[in-house]
Amino acid sequence: MIKHINNTDINYIDYGDGENTLVLLHGWGQNISMMQPLGDKLKNNNRIIIIDLPGFGNSPEPKEIWSIYDYASMVKKLLDELKVDNPIMIGHSFGGKISLIYASMYKTSKLIVFGSPFKKEVEKLSTKTKILKSLKKVPGLKNLEGFAKKHIGSRDYKNASEFMRKILVEHVNLDIREDVKKISCPTLIIWGTNDSEVPINDAYELEKLINDSAVIPYEGCTHYAYLENLGQTVNIIKSFLGGE
């Protein structure tokens, strides 16, 4: 499905049914399909909305250099059109940073983030090859290798357009710690102890910044911890949402 928001077309999927609406946002260089394994496991009791963030998947690049705040504003306007008032935001990495900003600015029921940066980073981003190599090393993830090859987008830093690189630079240089302090909704912080992109220590720093929050470490898992232990992630989310 496509909606025209903030002068660009936004591709999204909207399925499932329930009182809760879960909005899933993927990481940099990825697309809807990297969040769909999670959405599919939660669709029976929840409405699921997964977005191709502009510049990825089937959503074209924005017409201007967007900040994280612009991405959050786009999500809000899309949800307004879809009659969603109090979402549960779920984001991985870049999508997690957008979710953090969203929850700091707009009404949010609950928040769940996976490996989400929130302060100025060393400017690096895994290439598709590096991501795939890391996935190969993870026990139980071999069956996802083919899936990942198809669905980790090629618009990573190395292959991104010059335009998207400018957005990436804005992202990695933006410190949102003061914004994060404004988040008041219950928050889960799920993180791999072997995350080489955003270290586990950042998870505990984030926990200190958000009043009603808790870290759930996944021992031995990487930046893709939520997928590596998908069953555990689903069970934790169901419990967090009210013991489905």
Description of the structure:
- The protein is of the alpha/beta class and 244 residues long.
- The chain has one domain: Alpha/Beta hydrolase fold, catalytic domain (Rossmann fold, 3-Layer(aba) Sandwich).
- It is 37% helix and 19% strand.
- It has ten helices and eight strands.
- The chain has an eight-stranded mixed beta sheet, sandwiched between helices.
- Helix 1 packs across helix 10 and helix 2 packs across helix 3 (94-105).
- The protein is globular, with a radius of gyration of 16 Å.
- The two termini are 28 Å apart.
- The model is unreliable at 123-127 (pLDDT under 50).
Query: What's the domain count?
Result: 1
The CATH topology is Rossmann fold
- The share of residues in helices is 25-40%
Outline type:
globular
Report on the biggest sheet.
8 strands, mixed
Backbone CA Rg: 16 Å
What separation lies between the terminal Cα atoms?
A: 28 Å
Strand content: 15-25%
Total helical segments? 10
Total beta strands: 8
> What is the CATH superfamily?
Alpha/Beta hydrolase fold, catalytic domain
The strand line-up of the biggest sheet is 1-2-4-3-5-6-7-8
pLDDT averaged over residues: 88
Low-confidence stretches: 123-127
Structural class: alpha/beta
Order of helices and strands: EEEHEHEHEHHHHEHEHH
- CATH class designation: Alpha Beta
Question: What's the architecture, going by CATH?
Answer: 3-Layer(aba) Sandwich
